[in-house]
Specification:
heterodimer, A: TIM Barrel, eight-stranded parallel β-sheet, about 15% strand, globular, B: mainly alpha, 2 domains, 4 helices, about 75% helix, about 0% strand
């Protein structure tokens, strides 16, 4: 089955992950800019990081036949530094012209401070002015519900195209308000924290598959890129068809990311493929 | 005087801290399993995915055991170790 990893921090992962993902059907990954585990001090450090994910990382993925796309942003933790954030934001538009940059992300909230909220607004505003997609991080654990509510409040005060915004890391207590407000949502599957493959399958059954993305966890912390395949297996074991799985784990990323024409992988239909083979 | 081993073993708050996220994860999985069961009951009430009588009997016994296991696990001052009690309980189904 062809799979797309919509949220994958490749710079924190090994080539063996690419190899095993390719062997398991992953055809594309999208890498949002994120926190490196320490707070960076200089705008130039971000610029080099953006160069790494927009220029170098696609070449590494290509060795395994995987398409690599990315997003640029100052992540919520470092966005507490308003001066740094402004300086990086001023240089982000030059990256929007790169052939694999899909938009602004991951912006969002961590502790939901005033500085973070202002940075989120500035990121979304910049994205809307430049016709970019937006990927929004929501806080973890105890801050999840409040932080997600603040994200919705910030967005509600702005003139945005909701279908071009993806609110990420939703769980049972936050998925409904985000969907009801018209945004795309993402479920992020971690071994311990955030959502699990089984709970994601539950939410797909409860809320349907429209405007829902599923991500594995792939960063420098305890995480596992193959939680996505685990979720696909769980979803299929419950009796959902191959085409239904393709809709969630391949076609939905195509539908959201494909709003940026640079993401040119198209939704696929297993039934159509069979028909074509029969007519060949 | 504390032995070297005692000095470096986990304190009660450290046990809670070290195992909180893992326990949170497992409890959420258990809660989700119960929610999943309720959703299946609702689907069956609408005429979908009907179970056989044998499946129903086995399922209701195991469900009762799971509920009892949670009660035992949550006891503040059990007469003996919860793990032993749960293993014996699970051996009944």
């Amino acid at each position: 089955m062809q799979i797309i990893q919509p949220h994958y921090h490749a710079i924190a992962r090994t080539a063996q992950d690419y190899e095993r993902m390719a062997m398991s059907g992953v055809v594309a990954v999208a890498e949002p800019a994120f926190w490196a585990g320490f707070d960076r001090l200089y705008p130039e450090t971000f610029i080099d990081y953006f160069r790494q994910i927009s220029e170098f990382e696609p070449t590494r993925a290509a060795q395994y036949g995987i398409r690599h796309f990315c997003w640029v942003a100052v992540n919520p933790k470092e966005a507490e530094d308003s001066i740094l954030t402004r300086e990086v934001l001023a240089q982000m538009p030059e990256f929007f012209a790169k052939p694999t940059v899909l938009g602004v992300g991951e912006t969002g909230l961590h502790k939901s401070t005033r500085n973070e909220c202002e940075a989120l607004e500035a990121h979304v505003d910049l994205a809307m002015k430049h016709g970019q997609l937006v990927l929004i991080h929501t806080p973890h654990l105890a801050d999840k519900a409040h932080g997600t509510q603040r994200v919705l409040e910030v967005l509600a005060g702005m003139n945005v195209d909701r279908e071009r915004i993806w609110i990420d890391h939703v769980e049972e207590q936050t998925i409904k308000p985000c969907l009801d407000a018209g945004y795309w949502v993402g479920m992020t599957l971690y071994p311990i924290t955030k959502c699990s493959p089984k709970r994601a399958a539950d939410m797909l059954e409860k809320y349907g598959t429209e405007r829902i993305l599923v991500n594995s966890s792939a960063d420098w912390g305890p995480s596992d890129p193959f939680t996505l395949q685990e979720c696909i297996l769980e979803y299929r074991r419950r009796g959902h068809s191959l085409q239904e799985a393709v809709e969630v784990f391949h076609n939905n990323p195509c539908r959201f990311l494909g709003q940026n024409p640079k993401f040119d992988i198209l939704p696929i239909s297993i039934e159509t493929l069979i028909d074509q083979r029969a007519n060949a | 005087m504390l032995s070297l081993k005692d000095r470096y073993m986990l304190t009660p708050p450290q046990v809670v801290e070290n195992y909180f996220l893992e326990s949170r994860h497992m409890l959420l999985e258990i809660a989700a399993a119960f929610d999943r069961y309720d959703a299946a009951v609702a689907r069956a009430a609408n005429g979908n995915a009907q179970a056989t009588e044998k499946e129903k009997n086995s399922g209701s016994k195991k469900l009762a055991v799971m509920r009892r296991a949670l009660e035992i696990a949550a006891q503040s001052h059990p007469a003996r170790e919860r793990t032993l009690a749960l293993l014996e309980l699970f051996a009944t189904v």
